[in-house]
Design a protein that fits this description.
Elements: H1 2-25, E1 28-34, H2 39-42, H3 52-59, E2 64-65, E3 71-83, E4 89-100, E5 106-113, H4 136-141
Antiparallel strand pairs: 1-3, 2-3, 3-4, 4-5
Length: 151
């Protein structure tokens, strides 16, 4: 009698522990990416007084550089939440832009978060290409008989 009660309690305990493990496996996971400078360090960037090499020492290497229209450095960071198999959700995104003048000194510093961001609508059109569209079997059997071994 005691043996059957023990085995039932172990089975019940095993089910409770198994359910707890399954529920904890579905908990949210957070990931922080990029370089988010400390606000105290950003305060050290006085326009007209701090040079680009000093900015690199204060804030570190930028995430991106401007390609056209002057020299700007971008420090980009984001915090993302992953939940099981669902699409990740961006909780917070911050971009710090440091603009330099021609002499290499800081001209201005601008900080934007995900509230100032804009969604960009991509174009769904496709460009047609020249040539023939062939099926899978035409690709496999298309070269049969094209080569002449007699020569």
């Amino acid at each position: 009698m005691f043996k059957s009660l023990r085995s039932k309690s172990f089975i019940g305990l095993g089910l409770v522990v198994g359910a707890a493990l399954m529920v904890s496996a579905c908990s949210s996971q957070f990931a922080t990416r990029g370089n988010l400078p400390d606000p105290d360090r950003l305060a050290e960037l006085v326009p007209g007084e701090v040079h680009a090499r000093d900015v690199a020492e204060i804030l570190g290497t930028p995430t991106a550089h401007s390609t056209f229209g002057g020299e700007s450095w971008y420090y980009i960071s984001e915090r993302v939440e992953y939940y099981a198999f669902l699409a990740p959700e961006i909780l917070d995104r911050t971009v710090v832009q440091v603009k330099f003048n021609k002499e290499g000194f800081v001209e201005w510093v601008k900080k934007e978060d995900n509230q100032q961001g804009r969604n960009v609508a991509f174009v769904d059109r496709t460009t047609p290409t020249a040539g023939n569209e062939i099926t899978f079997f035409e690709q496999i059997f298309g070269n049969l008989g094209r080569f002449n071994k007699g020569k």
